[in-house]
C-alpha cells in the first residue's frame, strides 16, 4: 500500500463481503423454496426473499466498485484521496440505507407513506428517502474521486473508470421516474438496470480488469490502454441500443425487436474482447506476481463473463427465440452466470489482490482462496446448467405445448433439487473465500522443496 | 488505383445498376445488381479506405464482405 | 497515396476501424434480416417496395460516391487551403443527399406511410433512418475538420464518411432495387 487513504477500501470490502454472505444465504433459502413451495411462505414470502437476494447483490457489488476505486485511484493518480472523512460518510449512508430497505420490506413499515414506505413496484423498490440517500452518497463519491483524479495523474484506467461511475450515478436518477403506466415503469427501469450492467458497469469492469492486468502481468501501460479504449467503445456501441432487447413484449413499438436483436447480439463482442485481453496480457506478461489467486480470479472473471453474459445472453436475445423463452428458467440461468462471471468474480479478484496489502500481510492464503474459486465457480456453473435444462424443458412444456405454469413447475422439481445442491457449494465457497482473505496469517500448506531429478 | 479512377468506376457501376433496374426484374437481375454492389463496396474499401495498401486486412475484409454478399444473394434468389 | 504504407498497419486510428467494423456488422445484420423477413411475405414486401422512388435514391448514390471522392482527395491534399475546400465540397454534397432524402421522406409521409404500415416500411425507416443519422453526423464532422484541416483529423473524418458511403452502396440495391 503506497498511499494511506487506500485503507478506505478495507471498510468497503468488509461490508461488501458481509452483504455477499447475506446474498448467497438468502439465495440458498430461495433455492429451497423452489424445492418446497410452502417453505417460509407465511413468514418471508418469496417476493421479499427475491428482493433481498437481488438488492443485496447490487449493493455489495456497488460497494465493491467503490472500494476498488478508493484502492486503485490513489495508485493511478499518484496522490491521496481528496477526503477520507467523506468516503467513510458515504459508506455510512449506504449501510443506513441498506438497513432501512431491509427492515421496511421485511416488516412492511410505514405502509402507504410517500417518503418512508414501499412504492409498490416490482423493481427499483426502495423507499424514497433511501433513493435520495443513494443519490447523496453517489454525489459524495463522485466529488471525492473526481477531485482526486483531477488533481493527480490522469490515466486511461481512471478516465474509463470515472466515465463508468459518473454514468452509473446519473442513470440511477431514472429510479425516481415512477409512471402509473406499468409499461412505462418497466421502460424506465431498464434505463437503470440494463444501462448499468450492459453499459456503465462494463466500463468499470474493463478498467478494474485493466488495473489488475497491469499490476499482475507487468505488461506495458500503453498496450493495456489501447485494449481498454477499444473494449469501452465496443461496450457502449452495442450496449446502449442493446436496451431494445428488453422492449420486445412490454408494449413498446415493434421496431425495438430488430434494434434489440441486432445490437444486443453484438454485446458478446466486448465480453469476448475482455477475455482475449486478459489471456493475451498473461501470455505476454513478464512479471511473476506472487498473488496467483488474484490472477486466477481475474482470468475466471473474464472467461465466465464471456460465457455467462456473452454466450448465455445471446442464447435468448433474438426476439424470435425470446418469444418462447422469455421469463423462463433460461433467463435465471443467464442472470446467475452473467452476474457471477462479470461482477462477482471481478470484485473478488480486486479484493483478493488488495486484501494482503490492506491487512499488512504477505500474500499467504493462496490455497484456500483458490479452492474457494473452484468451489464457488463450479457451483455457479453447475447451477447454470441445471437451470438451462430446466428452462429448455419449461419452454417446451409451457410455451410450445401450452401446459399450465404450475403443472410445469412440478415437472421441473428434479432440476430445482440439483440447483439447491449447487447452491450449497456456492455458499460454502463464499464462506471459504471470506475466511481465506480475512483470517489466516500463514499459508496452510508448506511448499515442498524442489529436489534434483535422479 | 487512384481515388479519381475509383470515383469514375463507382459512378459507372451506379449507372449500370440503375440501367439494369430500368430493364426489368427476374433472378438474373437480382444477382447482377448485387454483384455490382459487391464491386462498388470493394472499390470503396480498397481505394477510398486505403485497404489496397494493407493486403492482410484487405483479405479479411474481402472475406467478411464476400460471406455477407453470398448470404444476400442466396436469400434474394430463393424468394 | 500519402497514407500508403507497407507496414501492414491499418491506415489511421485503430478506433476508427473499430467503429467501421461495428457499423458494418449492424447494417449488414439489418440488411440480411430484411431479406430474410422478405421470404415470409414476398407479395407484401414487393407491393410495399413498389411505392419507393428508386430514381432519387440512384441520384443519391452518385452524390454520395462523388462526395467520398472529394473527401479522399482532401486526405491527399498537400496544402491546408485545398484540403479545406475539398472538405467543404464533400459536406455540401452531403447536404444535397439529405435534401433529396428529405423529399423522399416527405413524399412517404404524404402517402400516409409510417413505421406501422408494413414490416417493409419498418425496415425501410430503421435502415435508411439510421443511415441518414450518420450522414448528418458526417456533414457535421467534415465541417468541423474543414475549420482547421490537419492530416490526422482529415483522415479520421474522411474514414467516417467513406463508411457512410460504403453502407449506402450496399443498402441502396437491397432496399430500393431488388
Automatic annotation (TrEMBL), chain A:
The keyword Cell membrane applies. One of its GO terms (biological process) is electron transport coupled proton transport. Its EC number is 1.7.2.5. One of its GO terms (cellular component) is plasma membrane. It catalyses: nitrous oxide + 2 Fe(III)-[cytochrome c] + H2O = 2 nitric oxide + 2 Fe(II)-[cytochrome c] + 2 H(+). The keyword Metal-binding applies. It is found in: Cell membrane. It comes from the Bacteria. Pathway: Nitrogen metabolism; nitrate reduction (denitrification); dinitrogen from nitrate: step 3/4. The chain crosses the membrane at residues 12-35, 55-73, 85-109, 129-150, 157-176, 188-214, 226-249, 255-282, 294-315, 335-355, 367-393, 413-437. It is an enzyme of class 1 (oxidoreductase). SUPFAM superfamilies: Cytochrome c oxidase subunit I-like. InterPro entries: Cyt_c_oxase-like_su1_dom, Cyt_c_oxase-like_su1_sf, Cyt_C_Oxase_1, Cyt_c_Oxase_su1_BS. It holds the Pfam family COX1. It is a multi-pass membrane protein. Keywords: Cell membrane, Electron transport, Heme, Iron, Membrane, Metal-binding, Oxidoreductase, Respiratory chain, Transmembrane, Transmembrane helix, Transport. One of its GO terms (molecular function) is nitric oxide reductase activity. Residues 228-439 form the Cytochrome oxidase subunit I profile domain. Heterodimer of cytochromes b (large subunit) and c (small subunit). Component of the anaerobic respiratory chain that transforms nitrate to dinitrogen (denitrification). NorB is the catalytic subunit of the enzyme complex. Shows proton pump activity across the membrane in denitrifying bacterial cells. The mononitrogen reduction is probably coupled to electron transport phosphorylation. Belongs to the heme-copper respiratory oxidase family. This is Nitric oxide reductase subunit B. It comes from Donghicola mangrovi.
From TrEMBL, chain B:
Pfam families: COX4_pro. The lineage of its organism: Bacteria, Pseudomonadati, Pseudomonadota, Alphaproteobacteria, Rhodobacterales. It comes from Donghicola mangrovi. This is Nitric oxide reductase F protein. Keywords: Cell membrane, Membrane, Signal, Transmembrane, Transmembrane helix. Residues 1-21 form the signal peptide. It is found in: Cell membrane. One of its GO terms (cellular component) is plasma membrane. It comes from the Bacteria. InterPro entries: Cyt_c_oxidase_su4_prok. It is a multi-pass membrane protein. The chain crosses the membrane at residues 61-78.
